[in-house]
Design a protein that fits this description.
440 residues; 5-stranded mixed sheet; 18 strands; 30% strand; alpha+beta; Dna Ligase, domain 1; 12 helices
Length: 440
């Protein structure tokens, strides 16, 4: 019930021995991956990336399709017809540019109230050597123990192993022991929300190959190896949600999602200045900032009033716009700080923060985050795979690029995890999507 693909996909982040694998940025990708498709379902835009791994082991982006998001709120589907139309438009654009047809996608997970926790599993080996089967049993047992009514396990990532009580073991295979223990990081989400997402993608004639937590994907695209080892927090500032992921010891240690994002800033501007949402978004993009300067009081911005005639234009100082934007972003980073404190991660969260997502591009956001979180902050930009246009190389595209990276590395390796002829049962999301596709 807990596997994410009818082909027996195993846990994200585990290699074919059941061990954590290194993100692709540490080396080349697996060859012979075929066509890969990543679908970032955001609250403000839908993005589809199609790529492949070339013969020299490098990832190439074949096309990028994106479309304004409709029918999506806080990462969740709220209107099937509108969401279907937006997803179809983004995928069709990418398909046309790549001259190929997409059937399976790796999609982001930011909906369904994702929860992150650690599970410890102990396996009795009775003096035998640990092998691949032992590690598979560890992961399966971890997923079973993490099961909660009404929720579906998305990730179950082995973080470390202990052999007869001796911890810090990275690879226990071949080691003789009485007991083998493992600590796993589990991420799950509510089944109802995943059903709606699966239904929407089924209407688009798409299968869910796998789902990857949005901040996990952003981290794969934006972090360097030393950051992942020493400890770092990724804060992905999307339109409807702000998600965070903590990496340490080279592994994903924690994820969380806040139901607040760039759209809330836009709505605050629209309400505060009595203007349209479209113009509020334009003002935020062109003139938005979290930093007040003396010239702000003298610089007047035109504001068309909502519901008034076209000639009804008000003039407001830029300082008023800053005064609306800054409190909302302060609240966002205070909530991030509170969630990190509640998680009790301490040193694991590290002293560095990497900001990604479209909302992170506002002037002054980096300094504001450093002030409130009391950490060193940098803006994350995904590395540019071959073929990725400059327009898609900024922080706003960290998640879709990371999804494509996952598909080319962890996703490809995960297909090999199930023994030949013994594919694991398909996951709930995949089963729902298949059932719906057969009846649409």
């Amino acid at each position: 019930m807990n596997e994410m693909s009818r082909r027996g996909l195993a846990d994200a982040g585990a290699d074919q021995r059941g061990l954590p694998v290194a993100p692709a940025s540490r080396g080349r990708f697996r060859r012979g991956s075929g066509t890969l498709a990543a679908l970032d379902i955001g609250s403000t835009k839908i993005t589809c990336l199609i790529g492949r791994v070339e013969s020299d082991g490098h990832l190439r982006v074949l096309s990028v399709g994106h479309h304004r998001s409709r029918g999506i709120r806080a990462g969740s589907v709220v209107d099937l017809e509108l969401a279907e139309a937006s997803i179809r438009a983004a995928v069709a654009q990418a398909e046309e540019l790549a001259d190929t047809q997409v059937r399976e996608v790796v999609a982001n997970l930011s909906c369904g109230q994702p929860e992150s926790r650690h599970v410890t599993v102990q396996l009795h080996l009775g003096g035998h050597a640990a092998d691949d089967t032992s590690l598979r049993r560890i992961v399966a047992e971890g997923r079973a123990r993490a099961y909660a009514e009404g929720r579906e396990v998305i990730h179950a990532i082995p973080l470390s192993y202990a052999v007869d009580g001796t911890g810090g073991v990275k690879d226990p295979r071949g080691m003789v022991c009485e007991t083998l223990a493992a600590r796993l990081h589990v991420v799950d989400a509510t089944v109802g929300t995943l059903r709606n997402l699966a239904s929407c993608l089924a209407r688009c004639d798409l299968d869910i190959e796998a789902m990857v937590a949005a901040p996990f994907a952003a981290g794969l695209a934006s972090l360097v190896e030393d950051e992942r080892e020493l400890g770092v927090t990724v804060v992905d500032m999307g339109g409807g949600t702000t998600s965070l992921a903590v990496f340490a010891d080279g592994q994903l240690q924690h994820t969380d999602v806040l139901p607040i994002g760039g759209q809330h800033v836009t709505n605050d501007i629209a309400r505060g200045l009595s203007t349209t949402i479209a113009h509020a978004e334009r003002m935020k993009t062109l003139h938005g900032s979290t930093q007040a300067v003396p010239e702000d009081d003298r610089e007047l911005l035109p504001v068309p009033l909502v519901g008034e005639d076209d000639h009804a234009i008000a003039k407001v100082p830029r300082s008023m716009l800053v005064g609306i934007i800054r409190p909302r972003l302060e609240e966002t980073f205070e909530l991030v700080r509170a969630r990190l404190d509640d998680a009790g991660l301490g040193r694991a969260a590290g002293r560095r923060v990497v900001l990604t997502g479209g909302a992170s591009q506002l002037i002054g956001v980096r300094d504001l985050a450093a002030q409130i979180l009391d950490k060193q902050v940098r803006n994350g930009r995904p590395p540019s795979p071959r073929g990725l246009p400059d327009s898609a190389s900024g922080p706003a595209f960290a998640v879709p690029v990371g999804l494509l990276v996952w598909a080319a590395t962890e996703g490809q390796i995960a297909r090999d995890l199930a023994p030949a002829g013994h594919a694991a049962p398909p996951g709930l999301v995949a089963r729902i999507a298949t059932w719906l596709r057969e009846r649409l």
